[in-house]
Design goal:
The chain is of the alpha/beta class and 337 residues long. It has a seven-stranded parallel beta sheet with strand order 3-2-1-4-5-7-12, with helices on both faces. A two-stranded parallel ribbon has the order 6-15. A two-stranded parallel ribbon has the order 8-11.
Length: 337
């Protein structure tokens, strides 16, 4: 019979994709008061993100690709967590390439992670009657129009364009999660996570913030795709982790936008990066890359009202922490030719 409450001293929590940018920060928070099982195959995650946790007695890492079934109670590494008796109380699913460069390199893997892999983990949620959180994305909305988008918005989506593997993966993942909830009566939730930044972002996956920081630190032209006055929305990873935990503690199932309602212009963000890095870089604005339209801006009214969450880390503070982290990474400094 499934155990939905911890029968020993702490909950067992499974974080799928736990060695990634967001997943590793989530593991850091959860391991403070729980036993955390981190599953990752290092497709886009990094052992460096969790190295500091490997000696923690409340943390276990499993190198596993979730497109293959997972049987936690059969793993010798998890005997100490007594999964066979206690089960797993919470599951967070973050197993997916998420940057344009990553899912362009791994399109089939992206689709399989959010379909076959997601099904395998949802089956664990059914088995253990676990609370379940699927990390989705605003790409499910399709093209934005510059206005604030709430959870009921349905936009145009091209299922065959350059980023369709990620868009359709997340759309299908939401549908699968919602239908598992209905059919099997599990406590499954959907979080639509907007643009997040912070330490442990990869230097080489093409995301805006690391690319700009890398260019600024090397005094190269900082390329900004879009117009200077275009509004964008960014929020710091610590705020996201707080939101995800509060979401699972609430009675809400979503889908729910998790993002920032502090809108800034592209020009402001780039200028802050140049200033904070003491760079002599020139800022160059270019047209957006193919298939990347206007950024979708979130309405976070629902998450504010239902779970009492809103972002608190100011942009200057978050960028400073991100720059400090990235500046210490091998490969950030380019050797002059």
């Amino acid at each position: 019979m499934p155990v939905t409450q911890a029968i020993f001293d702490k909950k067992n929590i499974l974080v799928v994709g736990g060695a990634g940018f967001i997943g590793s920060h989530l593991c850091d928070e959860l391991v403070k008061n729980n036993k955390v099982i981190c599953v990752d195959n290092f497709l886009t995650g990094s052992e460096n993100n969790i190295a500091h946790l490997l000696q923690n007695p409340n943390f276990r890492f499993i190198n596993h690709d979730v497109i293959n079934p997972l049987t936690p109670e059969a793993l010798p590494e998890l005997e100490v967590f007594r999964v066979q008796f206690q089960g797993i109380q919470e599951i967070y699913f973050l197993a997916s390439p998420a940057s344009p460069q990553a899912y362009a390199k791994f399109p089939v893997e992206t689709l399989l992670a959010n379909s076959v892999g997601l099904r395998n983990i949802l089956d664990l949620a059914v088995k253990y009657k676990s609370q379940f959180l699927f990390a989705s994305s605003p790409v499910v909305y399709g093209q934005g129009d510059g206005s604030l988008i709430n959870e009921n918005y349905v936009g145009l989506v091209n299922h065959l364009d350059a980023r369709s593997c990620f868009v359709e993966a997340k759309r299908f993942g939401e549908t699968l999660t919602a239908n598992y909830r209905k059919k099997y009566d599990i406590d499954a939730r959907i979080a639509r996570i907007f643009n997040t930044y912070g330490p442990r972002m990869l230097l080489n996956d093409g995301r805006m913030i690391p690319e700009m920081i890398k260019a600024a630190m090397n005094n190269r032209d900082v390329i900004a795709y879009g117009s200077p006055k275009e509004l964008i929305s960014l929020f710091y990873v610590d705020d996201l982790i707080r939101a995800m935990v509060k979401f699972l503690e609430s009675n809400e199932s979503g889908p729910m936008n998790i993002g920032s309602d502090w809108k800034v212009t592209l020009e402001e963000v780039v200028q802050k990066i140049v200033t904070l890095t003491n760079s002599s870089s020139k800022i160059v604005y270019q047209e957006k890359l193919e298939n990347f339209g206007q950024q979708i801006l979130p309405s976070i009214t629902l998450v504010k009202e239902k779970i009492g969450w809103f972002p608190i880390v100011l942009l200057d503070e978050g960028l400073k922490k991100t720059i400090d982290y990235l500046s210490a990474q091998q490969g950030i400094r380019e050797v002059p030719v």
